[in-house]
Amino acid sequence: FSFSWQTTFQDGGEEVEDGAVYNVTLKKVQIQQAANKGARWLGGEGDQLPPEHTVRQYETSKIRAIKAGTLEKLVENLLTAFGDADFSYISIFLATYRAFASPRAVLELLLDRFGNLETSSHGEVANLNSLDSEMVLRAEIASVLRAWLDQCSDDFREPPDYLCLLKLLDYLKNNMPNSDMESRVQNLLKQFQNQEVEAVDGFCSTSSSDLVDGEELEISNPEEFSSFQDHIVAEQLTYMDVMLFRRVVPYHCLGSIWSQRDKKENKNLAPTVRATITQFNAVTKCVISTILGTRELKIQQRAKIIEKWIKIAHECRILKNFSSLRAIISALQSNSIYRLKTTWMCVSKDILLMYEELSEIFSDHDNYLTSRELLMKEATSKFANLDSSEKENQKKSQKRLQLQKNKGVMQGTVPYLGTFLTDLIMLDTALQDYVEGGLINFEKRRREFEVIAQIKLLQSSCNSYCLIPDEKFIHWFRRQRHLTEEESYKLSREAEAAADTNILSPKSQKSMVKRISTLFLGTDVFTPPKEQLPKSSPVGGSSGESTDSASVSSCEFNHSETEDVFVTPVSSPEDPLKKSSVGSDKGYDSDKGSVSSDKGSGSSKVSIFDPGSGLDSGSIPTRDSGSVPSSATKALPVYNRQSEGSCIIRVSMDGLHASVYKSILITNQDRIPDVTQRALLKHNLEPDAVEDYELVQVISEDKELVFPRDANVFYGMNSHVNFDFILRKKA
């Protein structure tokens, strides 16, 4: 006989049980079977056999995937999911349950209620009247525990008592004595007890406590920095990024967890994510310090340092390290570096083209589509897929890439973690934690797992890296003293003022301005006369006072929250005529907003980017076609777009908390008191103080829309500007 299968799926609706709701899908398999062995001689092959010589049989099976339930039902489903053909359920639950339960609560339910082989006769899982039923339950419990230890063993790291691990060990001794599982748990307990407590930020810390006694932080010596080869710097930055990214605990990235980090009691929350942010900021500040830290540098020397960092960024691209790549690009686009017009004029054309191509990777067009597609394309590829529109750069890239291939070692991929944090915050804001009846919304967890799974895939790919630490560079990197925002801006002004007296003639300056303008803007962009240029534009402008109130971006940030922010600019040399306003950073819609300084204070409006706090505008990840199909997912509300009666807005607190945005979901039913109360809760303030505040929408730098007390926010807001609001205490 020969067989062929054709599978179709049909939505079977929902099944409701006490404490749970299930999505049901009917899987219909058509089996086409040849009537006899000689059928192939009658004009057909495989599934192309003549109809009269085949027998069609249909087999229908039901797939149940839990949609919402009580904690008890969700834990019970760990034991029954395979029987319901929901094969990914255990992985999804283990990756996301920390958003709604503790390890102890889950373990107690699993072992005491469902796993007690002597007294579990409630009928929740199985009827234990027979030995077969007991063996089935024992196997199911062992399977769940094995998956838990494989995927999330750190859930049991609870020094110094390790209560959950001891409870598990006691259960195994009583119910599965002398099993491999028991030995494994014993070894894990010994491992935890013997391990020294390591600082999660490890080598990447830039605090003076990591230095040799008596050694102080210092501003980089340009000659020492220049002595490091470009590819060595990129490899060492990648080494540090890889070590930190591999340590990231995926559930730390969940929006419901990461969004709570600002509370005083949560200062140690999500340490693995904070460590990657600290490293990102350290790289960004290192770039700025090496460029501006030495006052005596000549224009050409400073330009050479910029060129070196662009080459290092390109090496990071070859190594598929998108984290340090973005950190370097962000630093070069910061206000203090971006405004060095004369210095940028001395950067060679080839390097500027390279810089432009690298910057384009992180374009905010279509919800960062370029960087997302590139990341997924290279997630599992052995080497970087390089392409350059400039022939000379293409030759250099292919040559460097060939050297990597000749080593015979595959490369991993280090992502920019902010993209995933942003997506998870989006999901957490847009989807409810609980549905009707107080049931835990597990559909939300399935959506979150799609993002978590990508993080895990990339973490796995990082095992392919074979990098050796260079102690000389790491020591140099650690001891760098980072400039404050005020220091870097002051040094930038001094450097540009000195450049104004250089030997370049007005004619050559005009030529260079035209060249750099053409590179960044394109040949078809109309450049208005000098007097029409916005103050933020470096093209044809001058240094000095005219830039003090510029609305350009900066990667400097609030130093009281150095562990909480990734930094990135609002605008970049790609678009120097772009005029930004408070909250206008649509590309990085985040809970961190724009901070304005008074004119003449030596500081411009800066964009503080916290990837975990905000929402990329545009689409979010969609459910992939796994083993459990589902109906089309309804489009979720997004920032800056009203859709199907809902949208997401950003609300900041006036005054002390003006730099912190919180993302809030509103519907066409919400009025001012509802939104105000939610905003106060998000900002960890007393929600009963609704009457003391007024809600205003920021229309422009000098215009606001003030809402009446009982106004409908959804219909009353201006939908043609950014959905940025301020909660202000009434006079």
From TrEMBL:
Q: Where is the N-terminal Ras-GEF domain?
A: 62-193
- Location of the Ras-associating domain: 645-731
Q: Which GO terms describe its molecular function?
A: guanyl-nucleotide exchange factor activity
Offer one Pfam family short name for this entry: RasGEF_N
- Kindly state one GO CC term assigned in the UniProt record: plasma membrane
Compositionally biased intervals (Polar residues): 544-557, 619-633
What protein name does the entry list?
RGL1 protein
